[in-house]
Amino acid sequence: MGEEVKSKGEEETWMVESKEWYLLSYAPHGVPTTDHLKLRSVCLSLSPQSIPHAHLAIETLFFSIDPYLRSRFTGNLDGLYFPQFELNQVITIFGIGRVKVSNDSKYKEGDLIMSASLLVAEYCVIPSSEIFGKIDAASGISLPDYLSSLGVPGFAAWLGIEVVGDPKPGSNVLISAASGGVGMIAGQLAKIRGCRVIGSTGSDEKLRLIKEEFGYDDGFNYNKETDLDAVLTKFFPNGIDFYLDNVGGKMLESVLNHVNKYARIPLCGMISQYNQVWTERDGVRNLLNMVGKEVRMEGFLLKTHFNRFGDFAKEMEGHMKEGRVKSKIKINTGIETFLDSLNSLFSASNIGKVLIQVKA
Amino acid sequence: MGEEVKSKGEEETWMVESKEWYLLSYAPHGVPTTDHLKLRSVCLSLSPQSIPHAHLAIETLFFSIDPYLRSRFTGNLDGLYFPQFELNQVITIFGIGRVKVSNDSKYKEGDLIMSASLLVAEYCVIPSSEIFGKIDAASGISLPDYLSSLGVPGFAAWLGIEVVGDPKPGSNVLISAASGGVGMIAGQLAKIRGCRVIGSTGSDEKLRLIKEEFGYDDGFNYNKETDLDAVLTKFFPNGIDFYLDNVGGKMLESVLNHVNKYARIPLCGMISQYNQVWTERDGVRNLLNMVGKEVRMEGFLLKTHFNRFGDFAKEMEGHMKEGRVKSKIKINTGIETFLDSLNSLFSASNIGKVLIQVKA
């Protein structure tokens, strides 16, 4: 006990106020609100004595806002099968932080780290085993880029194109949510492979962006189209060889009416489906086409492929340095924006990768 | 002209009466009837002079009745994408025949041949290029077995298990239409691989058969079950690793709620769906589970894999000779039974592989 005795003044210098988002109740369907996720402010001691062995006190800097997060507070396991957040606990997220206090000799104060287990809080204490990697501040790559092209969406796009899907040069490729975090990168990777790439987006502004910034051959705004079948006929007169599905539902069904023999459909996510319980989701009625066209459809998650992260990062850094892959990033400022930032993924409003910069 | 002059008597000895089924009108949905497929009798000359170069006159012996046939007279291309039969033409089928007259030196009268392009007729004249292979009458294998274990359903089952699906020993395997032509063989092949195999069937008699004759570990009669989810929970307490889908629809959807990580679902056909236009088919609402469980679903057709037929036949003959693979065959007698034989595939009535023996 004696060693832990400190003067009130010493302890107080280590106290920080930390705002954090915790889960009040599950939201099985619909748009989550402050009935489900709540912001609160706590006082936290970062004194070296209060940090357990092999743990780090982290000041959070950037959070990666990704659609899978929505599936972690539905209260049921169907769909993505990510573990559910626990009630009354602070939720966790992929992001970048700075080490404030280290109780692990591999890390020191000031180190920039990435982790999939940051708390959605201004400060947190986590085991050093949860650190995904250190960031070299002299790399010339910005912190937001580490969470976009080199982060969750970039890795997902790379897996969909390079590992799971493997479209051949000249393939006719469709990418849904084409201006989203995953889609914008996937489209550029497919172009690098020599494919003809068409994007589906939710606004004219996004449509302009994928053509002018991301090098898509063409695309459409699905919110302006009443007949998806006619659109696909127009943009794919020779059929679809490859579809990276980020949305599911009606788009997937329509695509299955236009697939070519041996088409590949990596399933990266189904953003149109996350806010509904599965029995209320759009059913895909034409899976029989997969038999006649001998289509392969395959879901994938990043975790399974973490052993490829090094290959991915090396390749992607090369693309970025050569200017072959660009990224559009929407940075919302302040941890207070978490709920709105998350919900923006499911509206037509956001473009590109969404991040939160925790402090201005 | 002079050489073709024959006496009326000579020509008449080559004339045969041949009953044949032709397509009167397409049947987009529902059970086809004699409004769609009609039987008629024609007179056909089999005189050597009337057989073109590199053609054969064939007396048909056995027809293989397979579900894909239904898709060839819906009048639209969705689903299996087999070419549609033409109106007022005799329909074609996979079967066995005997050469009556040969105008190709590779074949002689009496040869037993297999072809995917026999007419559904008692006699027909076809190009020798359409012959799939000769049958060795001394092989010890019966003609019906050539159309079951060694024919369309056997090859489909082998592709689903050995090529497309590749379940590991110990895998928890579900096979739908488990006592049907494909299912009965697939279940036995999965057992040979050391899997735990459960079958879904449509009657108690079929259920008994798959357990007692085909060596399934267990199974259920889906017509007796009101809650597919509960049935799958009961038979797959550790989840489903592999599902050979022969039916589609509600069964596929239920399976997707019970799949394990990395489950494989080869799509062999969807017999529950063939009698409906696609917009009226059951939609599968939980494809998102394929993402979370990283499931691969893949359709396949036999034609793509014909280069493997030799490997298949050799392996299957070995299984048959060692008694490891058995086959239940329902033989209907007389070409008149064609329509009823076809429709029996889509009812709960038939068991095993359905053939027609053209003449008693």
Automatic annotation (TrEMBL), chains A, B:
Enoyl reductase (ER) domain: residues covered: 75-356
One Pfam family this sequence matches: ADH_zinc_N
Keyword Plastid on entry: no
GO molecular function terms noted in the UniProt entry: 2-alkenal reductase [NAD(P)H] activity
Record's keyword terms, sorted: Oxidoreductase
Cell cycle in keyword set: no
Xref: InterPro entries: ADH-like_C, ADH_N_2, ER, GroES-like_sf, MDR_fam, NAD(P)-bd_dom_sf
PANTHER family: 2-ALKENAL REDUCTASE (NADP(+)-DEPENDENT)-LIKE, PROSTAGLANDIN REDUCTASE
Record's protein name: Enoyl reductase (ER) domain-containing protein
